[in-house]
Amino acid sequence: MTYRWYAEMADFIDRAPEEAAFIFNDYAAFDYIKWRQLDRQVFRNDVALRRTFGGDGIVIPAEGGAPLYYAHHPDAPPAAALRARFLDGPVYESAARDSRGLPVLTVYAVDTAAASQQAGALDPVYAPDRATQLSAPVDFGGTLALLGVAFQPATDDEIALLSYWRVTARPPFVSTFVHAVGPDGALVAQHDGLAPAEFELTPGDLIVQRHTLPLPANRADDARYDLFLGVYTEGDVARLPVAGGPADAVWLGAWAAGGVQR
Question: What would you measure as the largest C-alpha separation in the chain, in angstroms?
Fold first, then answer.
């Protein structure tokens, strides 16, 4: 069925308006053979293509494109937080269905104006000393620049936030991390991931990554966890440095009952 999805996606691209752009979200890690197959099936050179995995991220291509579409595999729908903020529709569902009756391909329109507006009105981040507010964008290793974060409504069982990044140079294979750390320095919860496929990123691309951290069920009523965010290379798990200092992470705030505090 996956190859049918690629064929449906290629057909949709070939029928799209001129100078359109596309984000397509798959359910599995990058498969170079499938990607090359899509390249062969698309008979257009006026479109910008980006790929994400798993539904927890979105990337706005630097080339622009009007309109911008987000297409997904039935096993990888967009996260509700991303759909609510950025996606309109669906604007297209393929007639072909999988064994569950779901469309092989579902396509949304992306509200790029909303993405740009949100990127300019984010929560600030701080140096690890928890006192020094850092001016955005915050450069990580000369490849990704953090614009800020947006915390989602607090729940009793998880911390959820969106991080916004500008690509400054095509990065190596990297992952972001968010760590929740207790007063004793122990790691109590974490999220690792970067949805976009690095090999297609272009300087100027805007990335929005969703992070969810499950909270310990046995935590004390007065529990307080410091939240740190950073980037590391996947091969050696080496953290990218934050420009302007020795730090390799930024402080986002401290979670306590009721939400994130600074």
Answer: 59
* pTM, to two decimals: 0.91
- CATH classification at residue 150: 2.70.50
Q: Are residues 105 and 172 in the same domain?
A: no
Q: Count structural domains, the chain.
A: 2
Q: What are phi and psi of 18, to 5 degrees?
A: -60, 145
- Evaluated on CA atoms 52, 57, 61, 66, the torsion sign reads positive
Identify the pLDDT of residue 204. Answer: 95
What gap in Å lies between CA 65 and CA 247, rounded to an integer? Answer: 37
DSSP sequence for 49-60? EEEEETTSEEEE
Q: Is pLDDT above 70 for 255?
A: yes
Write down the pLDDT at residue 34: 60
The C-alpha atoms of residue 111 and residue 183 are separated, in whole angstroms, by 41
**Residue numbers of the domain that contains 88:** 2-118
- Among the listed residues 143, 125, 123, 142, the one whose alpha carbon sits nearest the alpha carbon of residue 134: 125
Shared domain for 136 and 98, answered yes or no, is no
109 and 134 share a domain? no
Calpha distance 245→127 (Å, rounded)? 9
Q: Are residues 249 and 127 part of one domain?
A: yes
Sign of the CA dihedral running 48, 52, 55, 56: negative
Nearest of 41, 35, 33 to residue 53 by alpha carbon: 35
Q: Are residues 106 and 154 in the same domain?
A: no
DSSP letter, residue 216:
P
User: Cα(120)–Cα(18) distance, rounded to whole angstroms?
Assistant: 29
